[in-house]
Amino acid sequence: MVQIIDEFHKNGTPFEHQIALNNLNADQILTCLDYPAYFDLTAQNLPSNKNGILQQLEAEKMIRKNQAGQWDIYNLGAILFAKDLAFFPELRHKAIRVIQYANSSRTETVREREEKQGYAISFFQAVDFIKILI
Fold first, then answer.
1. Which of 8, 30, 90, 119 pairs as cysteine with 15 (C-beta 3.0–4.6 A)?
2. What pLDDT was estimated at residue 12?
3. What is the structure's pLDDT at 128?
4. Would residue 6 count as lying in a domain?
5. Are residues 72 and 121 in the same domain?
6. % pLDDT > 90, the chain
7. Residue 100 main-chain phi, psi, to 5 deg
8. Do 27 and 72 fall within a single domain?
9. Range of the domain at 115
10. What is the pLDDT of residues 27-54, one digit of tens each?
11. CA 102 to CA 70: how far, in whole Å?
12. 3-state secondary structure 62-130
């Protein structure tokens, strides 16, 4: 029997629990993730301090405190709430792309748009662009 391990389960770890960036300080976490968007989309009040924000993101498995006392960002947090997916080398190619082709052969592009932010943030912009196209 041949076992295939894809990028979603490297070493038995589901994609969302793999680490996108590691050994960051609190300010770097808040620079990389659009945490106000997380609180807005989940209809929660934004905590009044940095520790409250980090605790909530950790509780939602977006980030974790590592053994060195620094912070790691899980793929889940990055893919959903990245301010810019370019911050995450392993995820930058997973940005939302909407492409309008001239015909069904998909050889000629009419319009194309790539969202740079995480999925939760850029979803509505992508839908708005699709509405323009149709």
1. 8
2. 82
3. 93
4. no
5. no
6. 84
7. -105, 120
8. yes
9. 97-133
10. 999 999 999 999 999 999 999 999 999 9
11. 49
12. CEEECCCCCEEEEHHHHHHHECCHHHCCCCHHHCCEEEEECCCCCCCEEEEEECCCCHHHHHHHHHHHH
- Count up the domains in the chain and report the number: 2
Do 56 and 46 contact (CB within 8 A), yes or no? Answer: no
- CB of 96 within 8 A of CB of 115? yes
pLDDT band at 3 (very low <50, low <70, confident <90, very high): very low
Q: Considering the domain boundaries, does residue 88 fall inside one?
A: no
Q: How many Å apart are CA 27 and CA 36, to the nearest integer?
A: 14
In a domain, 92, yes or no: no
Residues 54 and 20 in one domain: yes
* C-alpha angle 130-131-134 in degrees, rounded to nearest 5: 85
Separation CA 26–CA 23 (nearest Å): 10
- Within-domain flag for 58: yes
Looking at the structure, do residues 78 and 109 belong to the same domain, yes or no?
no
- Asked if 36 and 69 sit in the same domain, the reply is yes
- Asked if 25 and 51 sit in the same domain, the reply is yes
Can you spell out the DSSP letters for 19-71?
EEEEEE-HHHHHHHB-HHHHHHHTT-PPPSSHHHHHHHHHHTTSEEE-TTS-E
